[in-house]
Amino acid sequence: MRRVVITGLGAITPLGNNVKTTWDRLLKGESGIDRIKAFDTSDHTVKIAGEVKGFNPEERINPKLVRRLDRCVQFALWSAIEAVEDAKIDFSKYDADRIGVIIGSGIGGLSTWEAEHTKFLNQGPARVSPFLIPMMISDMTSGYVSIHWGLKGPNYTTVSACASGAHAIGNAFRVIKYGDADVVVTGGSEASVTPFSLAGFSNMRALSRRNDEPQKASRPFDKKRDGFVMAEGAATIILEELEFANQRDATIYGEILGFGATGDGFHITAPAPEGEGARRSMARSIRESGCSNEDIDYINTHGTSTELNDKFEARAIKDLFGAHAKKIVMNATKSMIGHSLGAAGAIEAVATILSIRDGVVHPTINLEEPDPECEGLDIARGQPRQLKIGHALSNSLGFGGHNVTICLKRF
């Protein structure tokens, strides 16, 4: 079976508008969460989020095109350009039919929908933009990225809530593994920090209400956690078939070995009891990888800072790994950047890849008093943890009962 390696990374997050800045600040344990600046939150119960800062899309994207792209698609294209440059691949030299694009987005062009719907209500249907539909639909994340380089291989967007970005990476892995493409540009993008979205998530009581302590609001596995913090951003990963990458002398970050995807079949927002869906997702990923449970050195958890997710993900890990669970180092990237929904799995996959490359695990901040139900796990906190990582898992769990795990290996 064909092997799949990682050759390029791109990212835009609340901690930085590129991979290097984001990674440097993750290692320092800095938070990108703050009071919302993009709109007036006076009437909102929740007033904090992980916003992307200092973003000028025209630095990388044609100004005329920028006006026709929702912020979500701008993020996707921005991070894809960085990833392609990082991979040092000139697509014009290869068969475009063998290069695919698979990018996840849980919600898509929400800010466009909000703006145009307001216009529709206040000014009538004649004033709605003719670009509403192509700016709003989720698949334009992958669509515009493929158009930018004229890529003609498998092309679509995965939509599975908070697991969307991870689903995209897993599907891209399989597309290459089974021979349908040699290269796939993959990842996730989301720009859902909007007035309407904030109200919806807040009213379902999913969000932290620590408005006076934004940087301390996201507290995965902490006893005093009170909900997740909304965020935005994107990450892109270039995947290549190993021989293809070797032939062009590409630098290889690591290798994807396995992809596990399961459904809870239980509840629209709550995870299955005891995290049994997440347990099966991890087990499937490990089984496909060909390694054993004891080979796993590190897990980048979904770690949302919500009551049920954290304790059930912890339970899933304990149930699957047994005594070995205590030997696995874990962390939660969302403690610093919040929850970027459909982009989260992709951003966390980038963090996992860099942890493998550099032999270091970033800390989980705000974990001051571990929840007793999450005890028995080695969650990195305080300082970065030096760790030689042979095999790692990255978990993503979404509303609707979608569970995804990606198994990665040092190359």
TrEMBL record:
InterPro entries: 3-oxoacyl-ACP_synth-2, Beta-ketoacyl_synthase, Ketoacyl_synth_AS, Ketoacyl_synth_C, Ketoacyl_synth_N, PKS_Beta-ketoAc_synthase_dom, Thiolase-like. Residues 1-410 form the Ketosynthase family 3 (KS3) domain. The active site is at 162 (for beta-ketoacyl synthase activity). It catalyses: (9Z)-hexadecenoyl-[ACP] + malonyl-[ACP] + H(+) = 3-oxo-(11Z)-octadecenoyl-[ACP] + holo-[ACP] + CO2; a fatty acyl-[ACP] + malonyl-[ACP] + H(+) = a 3-oxoacyl-[ACP] + holo-[ACP] + CO2. GO terms for molecular function: 3-oxoacyl-[acyl-carrier-protein] synthase activity. It comes from the Bacteria. Coiled coil: none annotated. Pathway: Lipid metabolism; fatty acid biosynthesis. Pfam families: ketoacyl-synt (PF00109), Ketoacyl-synt_C (PF02801). Its EC number is 2.3.1.179. GO terms for biological process: fatty acid biosynthetic process. GO terms for cellular component: cytosol. Keywords: Acyltransferase, Fatty acid biosynthesis, Fatty acid metabolism, Lipid biosynthesis, Lipid metabolism, Transferase. Involved in the type II fatty acid elongation cycle. Catalyzes the elongation of a wide range of acyl-ACP by the addition of two carbons from malonyl-ACP to an acyl acceptor. Can efficiently catalyze the conversion of palmitoleoyl-ACP (cis-hexadec-9-enoyl-ACP) to cis-vaccenoyl-ACP (cis-octadec-11-enoyl-ACP), an essential step in the thermal regulation of fatty acid composition. PANTHER family: 3-OXOACYL-[ACYL-CARRIER-PROTEIN] SYNTHASE, MITOCHONDRIAL (PTHR11712:SF336), POLYKETIDE SYNTHASE-RELATED (PTHR11712). Belongs to the thiolase-like superfamily. Beta-ketoacyl-ACP synthases family. This is 3-oxoacyl-[acyl-carrier-protein] synthase 2. It comes from candidate division WOR_3 bacterium SM23_42.
